[in-house]
Here is the input.
Amino acid sequence: MSRVSIQTGDFDVGAELAALEALGGGGVASFTGVVRGEGGLIALELEQYPAMTRGQVERIVEQAMARWPLIGVRVIHRHGRLEPGARIVFVGTASRHRTAALESCAFLIDWLKSHAPFWKKEHFAEGSPRWVDAKAEDEAKADSWRD
Amino acid sequence: MPDLSIVYFAWVREAIGTDGETIERPAEDATVADLVAALAARGGGYAQAFGDMSRLRAALDQRFVAMNCVIGDARELALFPPVTGG
Here is the structure.
């Protein structure tokens, strides 16, 4: 079971985890990304490449499913304007093995950061908005998963 | 062969002032880098967006490609900064 959603709306983490638990694998791992309100940030705007996003995220999910014995993967990525405290992204994995669930979850969020076509723009209470620069460490983290 | 459609995202889109355009298909052996250099030569926002190729990434028909990739018969080229999702 794998499911990818690219959406503007919020999602229910509890319901997503319950759905993964119901698959019966016995082990579920997850990551939730939330907007930080540091440095006077009032909103994060996420732009995406609509024609590419879903296919690209599905390819990343396929890689995870080929690499670890998973029985369920759920990825939700929001776009549009998000305020501090809002959830941005959810990755959930289910497996019969905790190592597979935990490692694949880390792999998925690392690869989403550097391989999914999203761009973040920060809006502040004062001053002009700013596009977030990609971090070399994020790229390095994704690369560390290469065989 | 039909024209080539180009789409722009994030600050590339903002510098140029449009989210996309259709151009005459470049020469058969032209690479993404060749086209980016030609776009930069238009000056103005294009020069600003495409002057430093190290700050750019590209996709051909919704697949990430290196700048030295030949455009060939791809229908859509996307030019954008390194991604910052997650």
About this structure: The longest helix of chain B spans residues 32-40. DSSP finds three helices and five strands in chain B. The mean pLDDT of chain B is 96.
